[in-house]
Structures are given as structure tokens and as C-alpha cells.
């Protein structure tokens, strides 16, 4: 298969929409990361997503809509709390887990009775959905398990020859995937942290919001479950290199990284360091995946990373870093 490289022009978006209509796969930009899209209501098309990415069949996709009126195609239930969150955070980087509507096939939901749905902020994405005439199922446009793509080149690096087309636009504004909040229980629960934080949801709803208890901790031996949202179960976002996260007092962390770097370089290893300022969590979100891919391009043998404070967006970035490192953490 030859992957078409399209621009984010009106003409090329029409071409991309035709590919979606015909059951093909198109990678497209959003404000979070690039998504790999197919007609969410076409089971055969969605199966192609799993094949192209090498994605486990029980890892659900997220359904993207362009307008709130399209929500009825995805779910049969819209609660007052859901309306409040849509008013506050859509279009934007929020995915809600809701009951699956009858028109959404099980392959789209990972065989669950629930489905993730969001309305992206990115206008190229929304125009693609409008012109396709259907909701678009789209996980991140990368090989399964690899760092998520925040530029069109990242998509091409992973999926060239595996998908029909890529809409080449600018870098993603946010850089980590949407926050996923489960709206099917008595109390809303964050299943995947993102740019919209627990505090943001609590302020919007005026109530406590739960965090999934598995977030940001190492899975217990033999632990297994069926994920309700992408990024929950498998080692995700992984670079090719070994990765170590150093956690503790900032001065001791930097000293430990310097010592580990010297020891590794003495062994002839190539070292890549990730050390964000603790108060620049949004910068870290924007750059973390690009830096992991840069380490791979430069042929790093090991990545040494300083942990961020687990608050606000920093909690979300640490979620990605911990999974990238396979929870390889050194307390210093």
C-alpha cells in the first residue's frame, strides 16, 4: 500500500473524507496527538485500524464527533453531568465513557458495552468528520506500544505503507492524549489523565471525582483486566531504549542522573536525558513524546529522566513517563 501524503487544505480534506467513506484509514491531526481514523460504524474499517497498528483487540478506540448533535449516533444516554462537562470542555481534550449506542459495532469498543467519545478542538479534525458524514473511530496514529505521534512525520515514521493517507498539519498543541472520564458509574472516574485535570472536573461538576486506582502505579504480578479506555492495560508509549526515572529531591535526582550518565558513557553507551523544569508541566506534556522519539532517532541506549511532581498536568505526564519506562523508577 502506498500512503498518500495530504495537506490540511479544503481539497485534500475532501480527498481524506472520501477515503473514510470508502472504508479506508486516514491519520489526522488533533490538539492532543495525531489520530488514525476510520468510520466508527463500519466494523471492517475499524478492524483495519487494529491491523495497521498491531493493536490488541480488547483495547478500545475513541469515537470522534464534530458537533454535539452527533452524540445520538454514539450513545442513547446523555445525563445532566455529561451536558455540564460538554458545555465546559468541548470541543477539547476530554473523552467521556458512555453507554454504547446500537450503531457502534463491538470492534470499535473493544467488545465493551461502553464507548469513549470526544469532540476535538482541532478544526482540521472536525472538518474531516463533517465531510466524512460519520463519527470517526481513532486511536493514536502510531504502532501499538510506541510513543504517541505529535507531528505528521511521527505518523509517517510508524505507519507509512500501512494506511491510506496522512493529513500533514502542524505539531499538536497539547502533546498528550485526552483525559478519559468514565460517566457510567455513580461517581465519575478518570481512567486516563490528561490536560484536563481532576481539579478541573471537580470545579465543573461541584463534586468529588475519582481516579482509577491503577493509575501511576506498577501493575501487580498476574494482574489483568479489560480496559475501558486506551492506555490502561499495556505497556504504552515505549521508546526502544532502556528508560530509568529518578524520583526524589531535585538536587539528589540531578546528581544521580549525572552519576548514572557518567557510568553509562564510560561503558560506551549513548545516553539521552529528559529533565523538565518542575513548574513547566504543560511544556513537558507538549514535548515528552517528541523527546522519546528523538532518543530513538539518535540511537540512545538508555534514557535517564527526572520525575515531575504528580500534581495537575504533571500527574498526567508522569502517567506517560511511567508507562514508557515500564515503571523502572529509582528513588534517590
Automatic annotation (TrEMBL):
Pfam family, one: Sua5_C
Alphabetical UniProt keywords: ATP-binding, Cytoplasm, Nucleotide-binding, Nucleotidyltransferase, Transferase, tRNA processing
Domain YrdC-like: from-to ranges: 10-196
Positions of L-threonine binding: 32, 64, 138, 178
Binding site for ATP: 55, 59, 114, 118, 140, 148, 192, 237
GO MF entry, a single one: double-stranded RNA binding
Single biological process term from Gene Ontology: tRNA processing
A Gene Ontology cellular-component term: cytoplasm
EC number: 2.7.7.87
Compartmental location: Cytoplasm
Catalytic activity: L-threonine + hydrogencarbonate + ATP = L-threonylcarbamoyladenylate + diphosphate + H2O
EC primary class: transferase
InterPro entries: DHBP_synth_RibB-like_a/b_dom, Sua5-like_dom, Sua5/YwlC_C, Sua5_C, T(6)A37_SUA5, TC-AMP_synthase_SUA5
Family to which the UniProt record says this protein belongs: Belongs to the SUA5 family.
NCBIfam families found in the cross-reference section: L-threonylcarbamoyladenylate synthase
Function, as annotated: Required for the formation of a threonylcarbamoyl group on adenosine at position 37 (t(6)A37) in tRNAs that read codons beginning with adenine.
UniProt-recorded name of the protein: Threonylcarbamoyl-AMP synthase
